[in-house]
ATP-dependent RNA helicase SUV3, mitochondrial (Cyberlindnera jadinii), 740 residues
Amino acid sequence: MIRSNILCVSRGYCKSFSTASVLSATKRKHSQKKKKQQSQRVPYTVRQRQQEQLDVRSNKWISGEDVMNYSNHMSFDDVSKNSMIPHITDEMKEWVELGLFDLQRKVRNGVLRWFEMDSTFEKTKNIAMKSFEHDISDALVRATDSEGSVTLADLLVPTVETLPSSLMAVQYPNEMLEKFFKSKNIGNDQELQREYLFEMTFQHYLRTVATQRSQAQDLTVSISNPAEWYPVARRLKRKLILHVGPTNSGKTYNALQRLKASNNGLYAGPLRLLAREVYHRFKSEGFRCNLVTGEEVIQDLDEFGNKASLSCSTVEMVDLNTEFEVAVIDEIQMIGDTNRGWAWTNALIGVRAHEVHLCGEASIVDLVKKIAHMTGDEVIVKEYKRLGKLHVEERHLANKLSDLKKGDCIVVFSKKKILQYKAEIERLTKLKAGVIYGALPAETRTEQARKFNDGEYDVLVASDAIGMGLNLRIKRVIFDSHKKFDGTKMIDIPVPHMKQIGGRAGRYKVAPSATTPTPSLNNESNDESVGYITAFTRDTLKRIHKCMNHETIKVEKAILWPSDEIWSHYISEFPNDTLLSVIMERFKKEVSKSKIYEIAEIDERTKIVQVLESIRGMLLTDMLRIATAPISPRLPDFQSVLYGYGFNVCRNQTKNCFEFDFLDFTLLKEKIWDVQDLSHLENLHKYLMVWMWMNNRYPELFVIRESATDAKNLIEERIEETLSYKDDVYRKQIQQRTNV
């Protein structure tokens, strides 16, 4: 049986996220009869290949914000005499799958029934076929949500947009259709009629692609001017307004004020928790606002179903297909990050906004000006100074914990050591300590920060995760060390990194204490705008002085990852059986490096793709999309999690989060005794967040999101409970097991 990508007919039920309706017995019987007839006409080996390789889904291709309102089945309305077509059905989706499969075979063999491909099409056919599949999938989504009528022009010059309605019209012919197909000597054979429509649509599509290709000087992938990847943005006269300055200088605040005054716009932040923070701030101030991250989409709809004009998103989810008045891109210096910098680069050169406000460090100014010279945009630079003083102390804290005071934050670059410090502080002093590190769920980090800001915690022990994304009222930053492990070796903390972390000091406001007065750090301690930086060792303090006095290190290059169109062109140049991991490695070696751009690090993506390639029948489009999933190959269950989710996509299976064995929710019932136990719970949260990421992109396959959200909240509560040591006996046992 040919699998439907929306409705699982073989299971006798349908699932829907916007509407849900059950097929009547008559229509189900008719649908099954049609599928049986189709199945009997196709050889077994072909049917098997269809099962494994054809999965033309109604999703946006590879990346970007996905359409969330899917309908599994829309029942037929009466068909009027003027050939008004009802909503596209599940059966029609199967016609598209069959038609694409048959067309692929014919294009590959170079033999079509209704037109002849000459030599001018030979080099273009593979490119056209791949993009044709993509555009048909998009057209199918749009057709699901609208009605249309078929005209004679649609039959004479069929297009991707009109094909879905034309295919449906074949099922319910009128006099015009009968006369047209009779003139083509096709008669009333509906299978031949659909075959004709597919081939003629592809013929016109192929000619368009061939014309565009002949006009281009060179389609070899080059990153010398990726601004050309976004022609619509180039047609706008954009202003790039740089808000640059150190931490705690008010640069982002001023950019957000402009965003709030705009008619429509977006904010793009580096982290999900920061996007949510701005989202909640806007909502609390009475602004309607949407939230779009890789894991969740919250649309603020009015009574007429219109989305809010403002959106907050992570930078990877920036909408590059909508025109805005204002866009704010935060932490723009991240454009040079070898792993994630591509998202800032694509947002900068691709966002369709008349004003693009870029917030970050002064290190980025020259690079943005160079990019603007290539994009033709105007650049305005606004410089900001720190709102309060920042003072690096002359003496290190030799007595360590006995020198701690309320409002201090100890910066540590080891999760185990962070938890050891917390246990030791609460065992040896009267201070309560909160913890923040990268492996914690974003919601847990936010809650720990809130408790510290509100005075429930006296001090904070944190990793470099405090460098961005959290508003913390820290009076003094204390570095435990000036070295960190980069995955292979110990390195000195980079100068920009040291400056950013140290700059978090000075946003201090101690909550009133009922038991003890707040001790003074020095004579300036009453000035909450003054921040202090120190260390536990003399060597580290010496390094801090050097870094804080160091001149700004400029960001030299912007990191890139190819757009969907560039990938499509590049992949089409390879034989059909070439592994995607091989193509990616070849791409990395072949692409010429310009003076201001370079390709993103692809090692982790390659590892992800290699796992997906082991799944028989996995589509290239799905591999490229899932290659951007937020999962690290360093996680212990990386392969089993990725394989499980990928297999579910490839086989078109419908599953909720409790049906994946590697999501071991029994951990929620167990006591957490040590760092390893806590890590198991944190990893479970990461794997579940990947499930939610998959749900955003394949909502018809990863279902019942509400249950996943409940499970996510339970994990976060369990982790928060552990870090809070609510049970005193439990706290003492935890402290003993930290080996301090």
Observations:
- DSSP finds 25 helices and 20 strands in the chain.
- The first strand starts at residue 84 and ends at 85.
- Residues 560-737 form one domain.
- The longest helix spans residues 190-215.
